[in-house]
Automatic annotation (TrEMBL):
Domain CBM1: 18-54
One GO cellular component, as annotated: extracellular region
PANTHER family reported for this sequence: PECTATE LYASE 18-RELATED, PECTATE LYASE 21-RELATED
Coiled coil start-end: none
Keyword Secreted included in the entry's annotation: yes
Region forming the signal peptide: 1-18
Source species, domain of life: Eukaryota
Protein name: CBM1 domain-containing protein
Amino acid sequence: MTKKLLVAALLLAPGAIAQSPLYGQCGGIGWTGPTTCVSGSTCVYSNDYYSQCLPGSAGTTTTTKTTTTTSKATTTTSKAATTTTVSSSTNCQAAAHGFASLNGGTTGGNGGTVVVVNNWADLKKYATSSGKYIIKVSGKIVATTTGEEIPVTNDKTIVGIGSTGEIYGGGFGFKNVKNIIIRNLKIGNTYDGDWDGKTHDWDGIQSDTSTHIWVDHCIFERGADGLIDLRLDSNYITISYTTFRNHNKVLGIGWSDNVITQATIHHCYFQNVGQRNPSADNLKYAHLYNNYLNNATSYGHYSRGYTNMKLENVYFEKVHNPITRDSTAILGASGCTFVSCTGSTAANSGTAFNPSSFYSYTLDSTANVPSIVKANAQPLAPICPS
Ligand SMILES: *[C@@H]1O[C@H](CO)[C@@H](O)[C@H](O)[C@H]1NC(C)=O
């Protein structure tokens, strides 16, 4: 066979051409799907059960581990000898999927000036500058004024380096801005001792009338008010692979009579929380899938006001009132698992929208959601290695 024919035969062989999409699974125990990723992404090992296609140059390094169910780790395949680290593009760029990918998309500071910051003053300086910036956060940055929300301007990516980027004692505020990516960061610890959150209006992210927002691979914990408050017609929002923990008022979306907000919330981990997990009030479209809630004391996913909510393959464990719906709201929930839950779960009502008519996405099976979410809903070093 000539070389050309051999290549053609390989390309035509079933399985040989299949590649996982960005953020798709590409390995792990029991995985029978593709083990390579589409161009522009790299297969990154998370745990024995899950490897994922993350943004980065394809084909440079592959760290997918193939395992058997009995032994811990078996083979590690390294494709190219030239690269030794699993690397995202050097500028830590990525673009959003889900609702944040619509109507022009969310690309943050892609293509702009790249800066590294390690203190509050520099973070503030670049986050409030005009123009495109990719602001890489090195280590833990402590807010000089507790509770301050840096007023981020258009076209910014704020991304933690490695897995240790952190905003401690402060957060971000978006006011009439667009195109902002917050990735790979731990944010929070403004807690003032008031569990009800009535003493200080200090949020991890507070967005008013802003659009194209992507929060990805972050941890939000112990805030004074809301961990994330998305208010007053904020729109085109995606929150992915993010943990919300040790907090009362977690994720509120709404505070508007208009019904225009569209949000995708998936593979998020709500752990040891009170209410608003999330509370989705008057959303035109709320797409919630593959989230894992463990120990929520007040309520879980809430379709509120005139929201149209599509809720798929969510794993609820020790959640009080796992799914709530107002009489005016639409709810289409399917494939969920409930373990040791209390209170009540709302019945479906009305005709939920079809997310597939807006964007493509891949549902993980509900049984795998806890392990996938626990391994991924946090900063991960390969997202922005340096
Ligand atoms: C459950 O979460 C609440 C916070 O909402 C916390 O106070 C409590 O200790 C948690 N329970 C367990 C068993 O972790």
